[in-house]
Amino acid sequence: MGALSHIRVLDLSRVLAGPWCTQNLADLGADVIKVEKPGVGDDTRHWGPPFAKDAQGKDSSETAYFIAMNRNKRSITVDISTPEGQDIIRKLVAESDVLIENYKVSQLVKYGLDYAALQKIKPDLIYCSITGFGQTGPYANRPGYDMIVEGMGGFMSVTGEAENVPGASPQKAGVPIADILTGMYATNAIMAALIYRDRTGEGQCIDMALLDTQIAVMANAASAYLCSGEIPQRLGNTSATIVPYQTFPTSDSWIIVAAGNNSQFKHFVTVGGQAQLADDPRFHDNPERVKHRDQLIPLLEAMTRHKTKAQWIDLLEEAKVPCGPINNFKEVFEDPQVMARGIEHTVPHPALGQMKLVASPMHLSKSPVQYKMPPPMLGQHTREVLQERLQLDTQAIEKLYDKGVL
């Protein structure tokens, strides 16, 4: 039994933030019904290549993007612009605990699927709305896109090479972090609302915004500005307060060295054959190393280029110097720690045979994550759900298909 196996979730969200949230809930056991547009589905079903390979090793129609955030869900297709489709959603809401959507502000009002309307049907409903900028404020009606929010929320102002590096510019994250983290916060908010409902019997509306989340997760950078009034700057892969704490080139790749004290620095330069650097007055303690980083770093980079990534990792680990490789994804999934933790997980797929997924990082001793279903094909469970939840017979379902409702 999953921790949330008693919870029913109706998922009207698309793309990333909402589906990331509902995948978390589904991993924990919730019965998640994903509502998609007939014939089209979630936008990310079309965001390829890359595509998953079928049993013959050929590209299928299942995109890697969609696969990443839609396991353990059942997919139904319903045209919510039709009265019949709206009626289906209302009836499913009456049987659900949670509804999550990421439509533009007030867009669902015209369909009678907004919180005010659905609360009358299900008073204890937990209704989570995810938008770019929230339900209030001058930007509420703007569409929200991850990269725009990364820029507006301060993330890109502190990410990228320092201003004095030739060609330096602000950089986005390698993955859509505003979307992903909003999905994580939405998961927390929903579970908190479920606990509150269990105590009081009351449902509520949750207003999640990508911009709010992006600013919140700026953590110490945002706090530094509020405390000091000084605007944080881009530092690339270095630290403002610790040297050396950054990436270094090797003869074949890159490593990270995080020498947080004088002893670690001494061990670092000693295994690199440059022990004299630890005795240099400019570098003998961290404040001096920070002060003279422009002189020190080129010397360390010249030193690290003489060995391979693997050689450096072995030497530094033996010398107890905090370090790590910068792995590509082939190296990630071949790492013995990653393999031991079972991060790559394979599930059976009805059309593709076996499908590889990235496992959930949540490890619960009493109610562990289960991989009950692969990411669904479009509308795969429409008949099943309508028969199970709404007791519609085959003839009624066929009529809805004929009318284009499903």
TrEMBL record:
Pfam families for this protein: CoA_transf_3
GO function term, MF aspect, one: transferase activity
InterPro entries registered for this protein in UniProt: CoA-transferase_III_domain, CoA-Trfase_fam_III, CoA-Trfase_III_dom3_sf, CoA-Trfase_III_dom_1_sf
Record key words, sorted: Transferase
Lineage, broadest ranks: Bacteria, Pseudomonadati, Pseudomonadota, Betaproteobacteria, Burkholderiales
Domain of life according to the entry: Bacteria
Protein name: CoA transferase
